[in-house]
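User: Structure tokens for this complex, please. No commentary.
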Amino acid sequence: MQAPLIGICRHRLSIDGAGVTTLVAFHGCPLHCQYCLNSQCLEPDGIWRMLSPQDVMTYLQKDDLYFRATGGGVCFGGGEPLLRSAMIVELCQLMPTEWAVTVETSLNVPLHHIQAVMPFVRQWIIDVKDMNPDIYRRYTGIDNTRVKENLRWLKENPTSIIIRLPHIPDYNTPDNIAASRKELETMGFTHFDEFDYQVR
Amino acid sequence: MEKGKKICAVLKDIRQKIADANDIKYAPHECHHEGPCAGTCPACEAEVKYLEEQLNTRRFLGKAVMLTGIAVGMTSVTACAQSKVPNNDGNDGDDVEMLPGDVLAPEPDSTDFVGKIPEPTDSIRLIEPGERPLAGIVPMRVPMFPGGPEEMEKFIKANMVYPKKAVKKGIQGTVTVGFTVQEDGSLTNVKVVQGVDPLLDQEALRIVSKMPKWEAGGVGSHTSVEYTEIPIPFEF
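Assistant:
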């Protein structure tokens, strides 16, 4: 098995969860966000390398000491990492269980991808964009019904979740963000990360 | 302090913490590199290997190893050791970075190559061929360009022919080349691990093909076949 990557980043300090982490960033995404900073993940020639789980492990193992000592580990991002759930599962089966696994996702994927990686993930970082369907569609180009369904499924399964609520210039307002937060709180979510998208 | 140096400092502190917790003699290399730092370098990686060897020795001797969670909370710098990385939709802004592939343009300041592997001291001796590993062994030697990293930098500068087309197009960046250093010091399986542009990638491969034999890696009088990677910066 091989999967296309746009990059691997070592020694990220407290960016993707606790401790020292390595980001494994996959190619491919179901969204077409207006301000996507990794637009290469949508371009056919945006692939950095095709790697097998064993190949990726050679990058990850270098920092085993740091991962264990700091409570860090691996963060899967992209692109949309869950589209490569089979690869993530295989990788997680190769990793020491002490490594913390974080997934940065839009959650706009078929549920079976989430179910597949669920047993291995210690923390989910979910960028919901905006819960308003019209704003979401205008910004990403697709519908967010599946995001909401998947959020409900995740909520039923005990796990650590941080919801990202971005301020998206020209797309949502503080009132929209507050409305998204309220909807999510009603669903039972409690940890939020509100921030501004960087437009470049 | 430059971001890479901050990462390097944090990682060094973590290594020190691991060494202290396990009663391992550890003297971090003194880094005199003044240019941009990628947060890690072969000398830093050698120290990690050294600690791993020491911890394995402790395990072999049935001693307790203190590792899990001992450096929790020490990672207060927000940055990444390699080059520019975008994260999903810009959280953390400029601080969000990653090791790029060919498309994500790497920063020209890739890797700090200054520093040396810790030298054996009176209390640290080399393990001899056939000897069982005991406490106090020195780390594995990493393969090295003859004369060290500074000589390698000189060699690269002296032999680099910046492709004219790349100059016209304004292409800069650091190409990472990986290869295997055989026991006799010859370089095999040379390949571009992290490219910038085919023009620069080809020149980087040409430079490595011109390199003299390296000093092979190993332990004590043993030599071993080792894979290594080097950055070749292209800057106007």
